[in-house]
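Subject: Predicted fold for DNA replication and repair protein RecF, 359 residues

User T.R. writes:
Posting the sequence so we have a shared reference for the thread.
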Amino acid sequence: MELRRLRIQNLRLIEQLELELASGWNLFLGTNGAGKTSLLEAAFLLSHGRSFRVGGQDALVRHGSSGYSVYGELETASSAIERVGLARNGGRLVARLAGESIAAAELMRHTAVLCFEPGSHELISGPSEERRRFLDWGVFHVEHDFLLHWRRYQRALKQRNALLRGDASGADLDVWDQELARAAEPLTMMRRDYFDALRPILAGLLRDLLAELGEPQLAFHPGFEAERPLAEVLAARRARDLARGHTSAGPHRADWSIGFETAPRREHLSRGQEKLCAFACVMAQAHLFAQRAGEYPVVCLDDLASEVDQAHQRMMVATVAASGAQVLATGTEEPAALAALGVSAKRFHVEQGRAAALL
Ligand SMILES: Nc1ncnc2c1ncn2[C@@H]1O[C@H](COP(=O)(O)OP(=O)(O)OP(=O)(O)O)[C@@H](O)[C@H]1O
Ligand SMILES: [Mg+2]
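User M.O. replies:
I've generated the structure tokens; pasting them so everyone works from the same file.
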């Protein structure tokens, strides 16, 4: 899918901006603080309802205004143009499709935008929450019931935790243990299936990008000892959970990991290697999305050049270019890898929250 047009109002320093985007590569060039990352954030918001940067919704709203809005015209494989929009006003998030107000999750189902950015190494070295989010975005786009199961599980988890903290009677906890275990089953199965499908694609990319580290080792961890049913695990941990006041095992603790023959743990990776792993994850997810949906998501590459050497930059650009995905990329300067590989791009000069197409 491709974003044909993007309109942004009151997002970070951008007061008002409208862009006509090209198929293939769109390159946003400008000095630090010009608003390049903010442009990518706008596209990302349409697909995730949140930014990839820390700071929450309020940080996105331009100082002095009451809310932001992002509007996009999305061309999909069926070649219909879909008008998608997300606005935040007075603390509320409103999603729109073809002018009609819809649930934010519905908008996210329509719009697929993936982003590799300077903070992406957190996917490897950061807390497990990042990795669950990554996994769940992919599952959400293939399994239509995923959100339903996820919400059911969250509700059960909240109830169980409340009981653990209060004066829980044994009977109530039994009920919520059962409910939690039942809700956990489809969630874990969907995540595992998704990770299994991602595994060969991700391994292939990691072999190419980080050949020097040897064979990649990828593992999914469901968040509890998978050899036993979760209900049993919860019963065995009850005393401990009561003492701690929260549930110590279950899909809310799920995680996955990347290791290599010569660097089995993530602590063994350099910063640049973490970034290359994160890039491989993003592109593996894009490839898998394309296999299932018949079209690529929009791929955002923020500051591709940071902390990655020239040879690896060329490999990254070649990987993305070969996919044929629409790309929104930023840089303070023209990335040498684009010219080296003969990748043509529509260029924009970004300055103080404005963007002008360069001829
Ligand atoms: N809520 C906000 N309201 C107004 N301005 C903001 C807000 N949040 C951030 N800014 C400003 O927006 C500007 C643009 O930030 P952005 O991260 O998009 O720049 P950039 O072009 O990506 O820069 P860099 O090359 O350093 O990555 C910064 O000067 C920042 O201070
Ligand atoms: Mg930036």
